[in-house]
Amino acid sequence: MVLKKLLLTVALVAAASPVWAGDVVRMGTEGAYPPYNFINDAGEVDGMERELGDELCRRASLTCEWVTNDWDSIIPNLVSGNYDTIIAGMSVTDERDEVIDFTQAYIPPEPSAYLAMDSGLDVSGGVIAAQTSTIQAAFIAQQGWTLVEFATPEETISAVRNGEADAVLADSSFLADHATDGLVFLDRTDSIGGGVGMGVRESDGELRGKFNAAIDSMKEDGSLNDLITKWEVGDTW
């Protein structure tokens, strides 16, 4: 419900959104969702999507400039012109597509997994943590389960460790590095998203077309699958 209200508000101002122009593209990401995107020890955006974005820009003869933004305002700030794309592990959904446009998916749909302290947990009767404004948070709410939302992915993990939640639901590739010190995967996954794509403003069809062509070329020559395998972000194409 919160996500629907946010997207409705954004839709009301989308008609006045700016249009990309020029050869420089500001790439908006969260910088907090490894292995998709994170900030490395040098203070720079890193991860699968940094490597992918730089290569897509090279193939499209564009110059990338990287911008970080909190997840819960990442769509509104795209629409308002703070950057020109979202490349942040964002699943393509019908609700989001009503407000912004997406390129074709560059990562196939990945199952969402549960991480908990108790391997026998019944998630339907537990308190489940998820990052706010995500497909996982929406899924938990749709099931009628008890949901607690947090602003960052790391906070969802901490909530399980400190007892605020019984489990966390997120992309399995994100959770993989956190299955330590008593946290275990439950024997259940749920298919929720429709693949991960780049978000662009609805007014930026030209930019969307450039990135679609670049993604096509990486799929055709196998380099996109190489990145997916290198960073372990899901199944290959």
Task: Describe the fold and architecture.
The structure is a single chain. The chain folds into 2 domains: 2-109 and 194-231, Periplasmic binding protein-like II (D-Maltodextrin-Binding Protein, domain 2, 3-Layer(aba) Sandwich); 112-190, 3-Layer(aba) Sandwich (D-Maltodextrin-Binding Protein, domain 2). Helix 2 (48-59) packs across helix 8 (205-221). The longest helix has 17 residues, at 205-221. It has helices at 2-14, 48-59, 74-79, 94-97, 135-143, 153-161, 172-175, 205-221, 223-231; strands at residues 24-29, 32-33, 37-39, 45-46, 63-68, 85-86, 101-107, 112-116, 127-131, 146-150, 167-171, 184-190, 196-200. It has 9 helices and 13 strands. The model has no long low-confidence stretch (mean pLDDT 94). Helices cover 35% and strands 25% of the residues. By secondary structure, it is an alpha/beta fold. A hairpin with a 5-residue loop joins strand 3 and strand 4 (45-46).
Biggest sheet strand order reads: 5-1-6-13-7
From the N-terminal CA to the C-terminal CA, the straight-line distance is: 33 Å
Mean pLDDT score: 94
CATH evolutionary superfamily of the largest domain: Periplasmic binding protein-like II
Query: How many discrete structural domains?
Result: 2
CATH architecture of the largest domain: 3-Layer(aba) Sandwich
- CATH class descriptor name of the largest domain: Alpha Beta
Strand content: 25-35%
Backbone CA Rg: 18 Å
Largest sheet composition:
5 strands, mixed
How many E-type strands?
Answer: 13
Helical content stands at 25-40%
